[in-house]
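Sample entry (314 residues):
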Amino acid sequence: MKNDNKNNYKIIFWGTSYFGAKILESLVFAGFSPILVVTTPESKKGRGLQKSPSEVKKMAKKWGLEVIEPIKLKENEEFLSYIKQLNPDVFIIASYGKIIPAEYLIISSKGAINVHPSLLPKWRGPSPIQTAILNGDKKTGVTIMLVDEKMDHGAILNKAELEIKNSNFKKLEENLIEIASQLLIETLPQWLRGKIKPIPQNHKKATYSKIIKKEDGLIDFKKSAEVIERKIRAFEVWPNVYFQRKEKIYKILEADVFKNKKILAEKKVGEFFCFDKKLIVKCGKEGLIIKKIQPENKKPMDGYSFWCGYQNKL
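Predicted structure, serialized as tokens:
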């Protein structure tokens, strides 16, 4: 497909994940097609560990955009030289997954813009969407910011807020993508024309999200049901939330909080039981209604069906 940039700006886009891919597509739709897309190398995924391209690479190919997948950025003179030859006006970064070294950031005449799915300086780092849900935040949002050598540290160009309500990860990510796309398309031309004055972040108020690991999904039923329910929504895509019984793993896919103190008073923490055809486990505080669960190597099922077939295995 033709690379149509009606605005004549030379943009290099950096991204990797689904969030980045959708931001890239929004640029193309708005007539800001990048002259180059930079993404991370293909990774091995699935049981067969087959190499799989990043979501950004797939999106770039869909729109006929040139893609490069550098294994490393530092001490990569060939790649650095190529970026310089392109003489870009601006970098746009959305969920690239790596820190871009300073020698790249000085190349583009209008710097580098990052699209970050949180209200900076809150939740800098790699997992701001999940962390906002885990933390029980009432609102989150998107920040369009300049990139410097530190993680999510640069001055702010624009922001937009969004209520989280009771969203799970997928729903919240889609809502943030919609807001981020609109905000970027609104902000980018203003920045390129010198119409925006960047506002420094209040670094004293900075908080940080972390890299999420597989083991983070393991449930500790000594925690409150509210905390566990938020974890289920936050880790919906990966790593999921799970517990183990007799060397088998059970993923909890959907849940709610059970607050009947009279019923819970008779149970021990970690004990599963059925009440009013609902599968419930007592937690450190309140109980967790398990609405959808997936036994290891089986299809997901509702909580009551699981109880009927698996209660002797818990």
